Amino acid sequence: MNMQRRHGAVLGDGLSGTRCLVLGAGGFIGLNLCRALLRAGAAVHGYGRPPAWPGALPDLRWTQAEFGDTAALGAALEGAEVVFHLLGGSVPAAAERDPAADLRINGVASVELLGLCRAAGVRRMVFVSSGGTVYGVPRILPIPEDHPTDPISAYGIHKLLVEKHLGLLAHRHGLHSVVLRAANPYGPFQSPDRGQGVIAALIARRLAGMPVEVWGDGQVVRDFLHVEDLVAAMLRAAVHAGEERLFNVGSGTGRSILDVVASVDAMLGLRGAEIHHHPARPVDVPVNVLDISRIRRVLGWAPRTDWMAGLRGTAEWLRGVLPARQGALVRR
Amino acid sequence: MNMQRRHGAVLGDGLSGTRCLVLGAGGFIGLNLCRALLRAGAAVHGYGRPPAWPGALPDLRWTQAEFGDTAALGAALEGAEVVFHLLGGSVPAAAERDPAADLRINGVASVELLGLCRAAGVRRMVFVSSGGTVYGVPRILPIPEDHPTDPISAYGIHKLLVEKHLGLLAHRHGLHSVVLRAANPYGPFQSPDRGQGVIAALIARRLAGMPVEVWGDGQVVRDFLHVEDLVAAMLRAAVHAGEERLFNVGSGTGRSILDVVASVDAMLGLRGAEIHHHPARPVDVPVNVLDISRIRRVLGWAPRTDWMAGLRGTAEWLRGVLPARQGALVRR
């Protein structure tokens, strides 16, 4: 791997021929990442549950197994040069209902996974953490990486737990890792019905002529990042050899949920979305916008996707897959 | 409870008649805490494993049960006004051998305990965290509470995990808690043979005419806090009603292990301790001294125990109990 070139690098530069293991390859980010890695010429091995979208999985080496299957994991880790850790199982709402269960199932499995990586001699990892939850209620905006981390959700705490164990492995065992604290990703392959992914849900419901659902007054502000931009950051992180190991990845722009509804309507040429308001969720911070100056400076990365173009691409993808998914919208 | 008076308060002021539950009451800190609470007139209920020292348990309501016994815990929590959380099971070395197991056993049990506290309607908790491990390698000295938390031990990470869950409960459910990041406590009731508590181990071995054991070159610097001072901070924390919920508790003074050996010899009137050096442990940070200006200012607390007097008291206590503990010194 070429660890030297960073600035001005072509996407995926330095990954050609590199044996990359993607844990959680069947998920939203995983599918996008696998495609980008294949385009970059990497030898990609996907691991995880089957993808939610038939035919979405590109042509790659594939192990279908659960997170907790240590035998399958151990075999997959053998010879992997870079491991992308996207496993995590839960969505925020599930973690909230039973924090101890989320810790027992997802937290423990994640720490066990790190132990397996160490035992297998893995040298590099990229972990996608949650820039939207690890900081808690922001004291300053945009939020820099050295902001205090006081999550108001169990989901955020357990992402932080994995970050800390990665730090320990780096310090004690020289297992180099990069943590990307990602903003709210959106784009193709995001399910509109998993309780995570507000943009996919909004577009899908507008396409179906259904009212949109908003928790609280819709003034909650989020930082929406196109998944292609997130994946580009992950490819840079995979060949990053510098000291800095923690980066925010976001668009740098805050948008309220009502702004997003208006943008979606403008993109679809619709007007007057009917909004069903549900009670605000205590797990939601009022605002989250990430300071992305560190990743710009150190990895030479910047968000590239135009907001309206990103929404359009998401809508096109949803138009293609939704007819095959009966009931996808009511389960959200 | 009188929540108003803080400065210049008598030790335990405001706790008379308060129903206090001490989880982990049979341990080193727990035994000292129970005695102080009883002196302050609190209604004390101790919970935990039997104390290591026969006869050490004062006359109090006592539930002998394991950490994970949710039925016994639920019953104990009923009606408790203040809960002191000293359970944690592991010592640093055990957590290090298998971080995932430590998380599965101690981390999960701790988070389950917090869920039980919330369900039982507990309003106040005091948690003793680890000022010696949560910060990791210090970037500045003494270490203030807003120093980054990058532990280099699983023990430290899992203390931090509990801190974060306490923060979530405070934010989301109004369960008020105070976190005390304690320096290295020493004093009566500390076992010389558990792999934690270097002062007890040093004194016990010198009393027995045995060589002392030092990991590394003995230049590692620690902040040693007499347990009576820690307990005084816990009593203040129990009646603290202010916004600030996180405090370092230390002596404010750093001492190397070799300094401690010299102090112990001076206190015992001995000379020329034979030192057996073992390899340095990667889990040990090179130096740890806590900045205690916040707790001085906000809780009006200060360390009171003179260093040599503290060592003398510890030696007197050890002289009284060691003859009954065959093999206590070789197991360290």
Describe the protein's architecture and organization.
Two copies of one chain form a homodimer. Chain A is an alpha/beta fold. The first copy, chain A, folds into two domains: 194 residues, Rossmann fold; 83 residues, UDP-galactose 4-epimerase, domain 1 (Alpha-Beta Complex). Helix content of chain A is 37%, strand content 17%. Chain A contains ten helices and 13 strands. In chain A, the strands form four sheets. The first copy, chain A, has a seven-stranded parallel beta sheet, sandwiched between helices. Chain A has a two-stranded parallel ribbon with strand order 7-10. In chain A, strand 5, helix 5 and strand 6 form a beta-alpha-beta unit. In chain A, helix 1 packs across helix 7, helix 6 packs across helix 8 and helix 6 packs across helix 10. The radius of gyration of chain A is 19 Å and the shape is globular. The N terminus of chain A is likely disordered. At the A-B interface, helix 4 and helix 5 of A face helix 4 and helix 5 of B.
Looking at this protein, list some descriptive labels.
two-stranded parallel ribbon; alpha/beta; 37% helix; seven-stranded parallel sheet; 17% strand; UDP-galactose 4-epimerase, domain 1; disordered N terminus; homodimer; Rossmann fold; 332 residues
Our count of helices of chain A gives 10
Fraction of residues in helix of chain A: 25-40%
Overall tally of structural domains of chain A: 2
Cα radius of gyration of chain A in angstroms: 19 Å
According to CATH, the homologous superfamily of the largest domain in chain A is NAD(P)-binding Rossmann-like Domain
Order of helices and strands of chain A: EHEEHEHHEHEEHEEEHEEHEHH
In the CATH scheme, the class of the largest domain in chain A would be Alpha Beta
* Low-confidence blocks of residues of chain A: 1-9
By CATH, the topology of the largest domain in chain A is Rossmann fold
